[in-house]
Amino acid sequence: MPRKAPKSRRTQAERRSTTQAAILSASLQILIEDGYARFSASRVAARAGVSRGAQEHYFPTKNDLIAAATRHAMREAVEHARLLARTATPSEDPIGKFLVDSEHFFFRPTFRAMVEIMIAARSDRALAKVVNPIVQDARDVLNGIWTDTLDAAGYPRDSAQQFIEITHYLLRGLFLVSTWLPYKVDRPAIIEAWRKLAPTALRLDRPKARRGRAPALRARSAVA
């Protein structure tokens, strides 16, 4: 007869994964809805439907919980970017794919949770020491994904890197204005205007003799 122990271990692993996912999802929802000021481990446990003991088994401290939620959110963002980048070819508008991914990152509810965490980290050195490297590492990976994608489409790498950074500054500003300031923002119109300017911005570093030509395709770089 086949041994049953491996099945039992798999079931335990699945149960552990489900519990952790529920805790991390509850953490992000509380940050989105109520902000960091009203965030507590006890509220997370209640929202996730688990005991405090179960929660503390996986995330012993509040900062452990915040770090895990941050890592979870950024991992999802990287997976989304990789999925879009894999289908971004010159004929399928890699610039458009990048803008779709960027808008998804900065305007999904999870980004509001990330903003709450980063504002709290500004005055909490222990929290900053934990979450800042997670966010920076993920941002480096995300930027690298799209730099490689635009590079493979034939755009100058330096211009691609600059375009990515400017786009993100633009969208962070749009998020802050549309979320907390009393202004009406036509986000689709602004992003569309930026999309139309993108090809020009991406060719700023090209030698003059090459301007006006279709970008030559390069081999896609490996994405870490």
What can you see in these coordinates?
Helix content is 74%, strand content 0%. The chain is globular and about 55 Å long. The protein starts with a helix and ends in a 22-residue tail after the last helix. Helix 1 packs across helix 4 (62-86), helix 6 (109-122) crosses helix 7 (125-152) and helix 7 crosses helix 8. With 224 residues, it is mainly alpha-helical.
For the residues shown, what is the average pLDDT?
A: 87
Residue runs with pLDDT of under 50 for 5 or more positions: 207-224
Radius of gyration: 21 Å
Oligomer: single chain
The counted number of beta strands is 0
How helical, in percent, are the residues?
Answer: over 70%
Order of helices and strands: HHHHHHHHH
Largest sheet: none
- Sheet-strand content, in percent, reads under 5%
What characteristic shape results from the CA principal axes? globular
How do the helices and strands line up, and which of them pair or pack?
Layout: H1 5-34, H2 41-48, H3 52-58, H4 62-86, H5 94-107, H6 109-122, H7 125-152, H8 157-180, H9 187-202
Helix pairs in contact: 1-2, 1-4, 1-6, 4-5, 4-7, 5-8, 6-7, 7-8, 8-9
Which descriptors would you attach to this protein?
single chain; disordered C terminus; mainly alpha; 224 residues
Give a short overview:
With 224 residues, this protein is mainly α. 74% of the residues lie in helices and 0% in strands. It is globular and about 55 Å long.
